[in-house]
TrEMBL record:
<dbReference type="GO" id="GO:0005886">
    <property type="term" value="C:plasma membrane"/>
</dbReference>
<keyword id="KW-1133">Transmembrane helix</keyword>
<keyword id="KW-0472">Membrane</keyword>
<protein>
    <recommendedName>
        <fullName>Protein ABCI12, chloroplastic</fullName>
    </recommendedName>
</protein>
<dbReference type="InterPro" id="IPR003339">
    <property type="entry name" value="ABC/ECF_trnsptr_transmembrane"/>
</dbReference>
<dbReference type="GO" id="GO:0009507">
    <property type="term" value="C:chloroplast"/>
</dbReference>
<feature type="transmembrane region" description="Helical">
    <location>
        <begin position="133"/>
        <end position="151"/>
    </location>
</feature>
<feature type="transmembrane region" description="Helical">
    <location>
        <begin position="265"/>
        <end position="287"/>
    </location>
</feature>
<dbReference type="Pfam" id="PF02361">
    <property type="entry name" value="CbiQ"/>
</dbReference>
<feature type="transmembrane region" description="Helical">
    <location>
        <begin position="360"/>
        <end position="380"/>
    </location>
</feature>
<keyword id="KW-0812">Transmembrane</keyword>
<feature type="transmembrane region" description="Helical">
    <location>
        <begin position="163"/>
        <end position="185"/>
    </location>
</feature>
Length: 386
């Protein structure tokens, strides 16, 4: 700042422009120098006040063209901060137990032996790709009914909805994308009338089932889409049913029982079983850490509108780092607990007690008969249904 009547400096300001804060901070230069030759008290500011930089936040903008009316599709766009919605979605998705044992209510599957459940899992993985399309959708309906019967309501509503959505998207993508591209090479074979051959009578067979503009659903696309979608549904839902009704110790014991012959060919069965048991124990810890970290961010009521894009990304990076830090901390605690209990790295010497009931009852016999009937129906349907 300088005087209008003389050229002597009176008061000077230094702008601290190196900071990235919204409010521009200023500091006085000390000591203040006031010219003794100037008698005027009128001071003028010779510089310009810098404007604060515009802040950028994550959001979705939409513009409706036409007569100014609001388009219908705009109501489906997410409103508010996208980051907060993402964290709330993560916290809600992890609220239901995924891959965790549910002890109550006790159902028919809780009583069935774990070895029989593993045999069912193997059959449900193989049969969708080797059976008729009717059997594929029949297996999907069977697993859906079993999920509603066995799992609690808040669990099966969440799981069935997401698995069905994933399988439906996969079915549409493969159904309309497998055989929708037009052929690049056209057939040069002349029609039968020019070659003196009788024309073949028309039949009810049609290779194309449905056509929507450039997309078409053919028999090949239906076969590929149904196989992939049904296989995805059966894998996810059957594994969820098995993990929900079977403890990790029972699953480890069943797998060890099936892998006993592999010991004679040098397969480290004990290490595989111990790794499986630790992995099943660790699944619930991972889901809990992901949900707790997301809930911690949501509960702090962050004003996402006032954050820049880089600050929002920094919060996401901190969220991922916190998850991995907590997971590694739990892994270290598990390692220390195993060392305290006498584990020294040799799985063959360290004895693992599974505490599983190996009795074979009526429920197991019924399950085995049902499995044999399912395999027989799949073979018969492949031969009869065309």
């Amino acid at each position: 700042m300088s005087c209008k009547l003389c050229s002597s400096p009176t008061v000077s300001f230094l702008s601290d422009s190196g900071r990235t804060s919204i409010r521009q901070s200023f500091r006085y230069q000390v000591p203040f120098v006031i010219s003794p030759l100037c008698t005027s008290s009128r001071l003028s500011w010779s510089g310009k006040v810098p404007k604060p930089p515009k802040r950028r936040s994550l959001g979705i903008l939409a513009m409706a063209q036409g007569n100014g009316e609001r388009e219908k599709w705009l109501m489906w766009l997410p409103r508010g901060p996208v980051a907060e919605r993402v964290f709330r979605l993560i916290a809600g998705a992890m609220s239901s137990p995924v891959g965790q044992y549910v002890s109550s209510p006790v159902t028919f599957l809780h009583v069935v032996d774990s070895r029989v459940k593993l045999a069912w899992l193997l059959a449900l993985v193989v049969l969708p790709s080797r059976s008729h399309i009717v059997m594929r959708f029949g297996l999907v309906a069977f697993l859906a009914v079993m999920s509603v019967w066995v799992l609690p309501k808040d669990v099966w509503t969440d799981q069935l909805g997401r698995v069905t959505l994933l399988s439906g998207i996969l079915f549409l993508m493969l159904g309309f994308g497998s055989d929708s591209a037009p052929p690049l090479v056209q057939l040069r074979t002349p029609p039968p009338s020019l070659m003196g051959l009788p024309e073949l009578p028309l039949s009810g067979y049609s290779y194309s089932i449905l056509k929507l503009g450039p997309l078409q659903l053919t028999r090949k696309g239906l076969s590929v889409a149904s196989t992939s979608a049904c296989l995805s549904f059966t894998i996810f839902q059957s594994a969820s049913l098995c993990l929900t009704t079977t403890t990790p110790e029972q699953l480890a014991y069943a797998l060890q029982w099936f892998m006993i012959p592999l010991k004679f060919v040098g397969v480290p069965v004990a290490e595989i079983i111990l790794t499986l048991l630790l992995s099943l124990r660790f699944i619930s810890i991972v889901f809990d850490e992901v949900r707790n970290a997301a809930m911690a961010i949501v509960s702090r009521r962050i004003k996402w509108e006032q954050l820049t894009v880089m600050e929002t990304l920094d919060i996401f990076i901190m969220y991922v780092r916190r998850i991995f830090a907590n997971i590694f901390k739990h892994a270290e605690q598990i390692t220390q607990a195993m060392i305290v209990r006498g584990f020294r790295g040799d799985s063959n010497i360290h004895k693992i007690y599974f505490f599983s009931n190996t009795s074979f009852g009526i429920a197991d016999m019924i399950s085995l008969l049902g499995l044999l009937g399912l395999i027989g129906a799949s073979i018969v349907s492949e031969q009869i249904l065309v």
